[in-house]
């Protein structure tokens, strides 16, 4: 079979869906390569900062690694701004959706909310409330997100910070994304993304 015969999903046969599942497994095996390509594209993304978006992502991950964070958090730091190009107003949520099947729930929550938590550093310049993050103050992942933004995200615009190349993080990406998606032993407790 080269392609299915159905024109509506409800008309598909078991054989057709097994065929498609096999193709999907083959395609999904290339996920890390596609993520690496997407990260490389950040080299040519939003400008105006002293580092590229790729350098910012690498530096965030490097800071997490130097801080002793585990692989889940380091990968979260590496991919946290991956959505900048395609979802500029909800890039955090896009990145969180990408990592969600493979990392513990805390990391997904932190990446999902980091955009809002980052406004703490600049919202006052636009007449906005820099403490809007405090609506999550009672959430068990609140402090983790505060720490992520303070230690890894907002600090990672330094062109002099010793930042490893993308290849340094590739083995880690491959390990994390080789996990069984949504494995309860990995993701643990999923924290509600909204109150």
From TrEMBL:
Protein name per UniProt: HD domain-containing protein
InterPro entries: HD_domain, OP_Dioxygenase
Organism: Halomonas saccharevitans
Lineage top rank: taxon: Bacteria
Lineage, highest ranks first: Bacteria, Pseudomonadati, Pseudomonadota, Gammaproteobacteria, Oceanospirillales
Pfam families attached to this UniProt entry: HD
HD domain boundaries: 53-137
